[in-house]
Each structure stands twice: as C-alpha cells, then as structure tokens.
Amino acid sequence: MFNHTTLIIIITVIVSLLAWQNKAVFNRLIFYPPAVKNGQWDRFVTHGFIHADGMHLLFNMFTLYFFGRAIEGLYQSFLFGYGFVVFYVLAIVVAMIPSYVKHKDSASYLSLGASGGVSAVLFAFILLAPWEKIYLFAVIPIPAILFAVAYVAYSIYADKRGGSNINHMAHMWGGAFGIIATIILEPQVLPHFLNALLSPGF
C-alpha cells in the first residue's frame, strides 16, 4: 500500500541522487548558516532531503521505512490527512534550530541529512511500544527504550567528536520534538507509554 512514509522516502532518494550528481544542487540544498542569514530559509527543510553518502541515506531511509509505517496512522486525522508529512518536515526544521543558533555566525559549518525527522519518528514509535524489539544493524535485537538511551548517548558523543557534516545533535532534538509533538496531538499516549514501560512483559 502506498503511504506518506513511502512518498517521503522516494522524494528523499531522488533528491539525494540528484545532489550527488550535481555539486551546485548539493551546495544549494545543504544547511549553510551564512546562506540562511541571507534569506535562504528553505535550507531548514532542504538539508533533510540530501545525504552524505549511500550508507547515510540507507540507514535513515531504512529506519524511516519500518517505523514511519508503524506510526503514520496516528497522525492521519490531522491536517486533512497530511499530519504525518507535516510532523516529519517540522521535525527536520525544529531539530536544526539549536544548531543554527549555535553556528549562525560560522562560515565553515555545514549540515545535511534526515536525522531530525527520522529521530522524531523513531521516538514517537518508542512512546507507543517502548519494549518492542528494534534490530540493530538489522540483526541484533534490542528493546526500543534501551535503543533510545543508547541513541541519545551516541549522538552526544558523536557531536562532541565532530569531523563530519552529519548533524548528530539533530538526532536528540528531533527525538525530543517527536515525543512532545505526539503527546500534544494525542495526550493519551503519555499514560499509555508509562503503563507499557512498567509492564515489559518479559
């Protein structure tokens, strides 16, 4: 069945492939603070549709495919059926704001990738099923809630280490947006999460 998750993946793959083939397109879409300050605010969105390389793209889209389909229905009643799309795009934007505030005067800062949106989807899923198994590297089973803790810890570590255009802190901010936005839209999710968290069923 064709859904909004699949649509987002198709668009992201196409845009990433086009950007890899054309450096001018890549440079126009990547998040670059001086360009944003000059009025190119669309980069808050466009950077989320390009990726550093094939593995970066594959990891994000693989994660989005499995968890996006699982939670997409939760948002369908909002914004004329496009609630999930808006949720995802807003997550990309919101996740970038702290980095922009921190690096707004930096001419060397660059960022790209769907991490903010994908993290929002992943953490929203964890609200619904904290003990559901997530398969790390598609092989190693780990409870979703434990994966979330490790995910945040790694994001903080990778951000401090630096050395790439991948915005690791967007993982954490995107995840925070996913949790807060989902609770605001569906307040009953919070007691559901707390009850599920206390009942692992092991």
TrEMBL record:
Keywords: Cell inner membrane, Cell membrane, Hydrolase, Membrane, Protease, Transmembrane, Transmembrane helix. One of its GO terms (biological process) is proteolysis. InterPro entries: Peptidase_S54_rhomboid_dom, Rhomboid-like_sf. It comes from Psychrobacter luti. It is found in: Membrane. It is a multi-pass membrane protein. One of its GO terms (cellular component) is membrane. SUPFAM superfamilies: Rhomboid-like (SSF144091). This is Membrane associated rhomboid family serine protease. It holds the Pfam family Rhomboid. Residues 39-185 form the Peptidase S54 rhomboid domain. The chain crosses the membrane at residues 6-23, 44-67, 79-97, 109-128, 134-157, 169-190. GO terms for molecular function: serine-type endopeptidase activity.
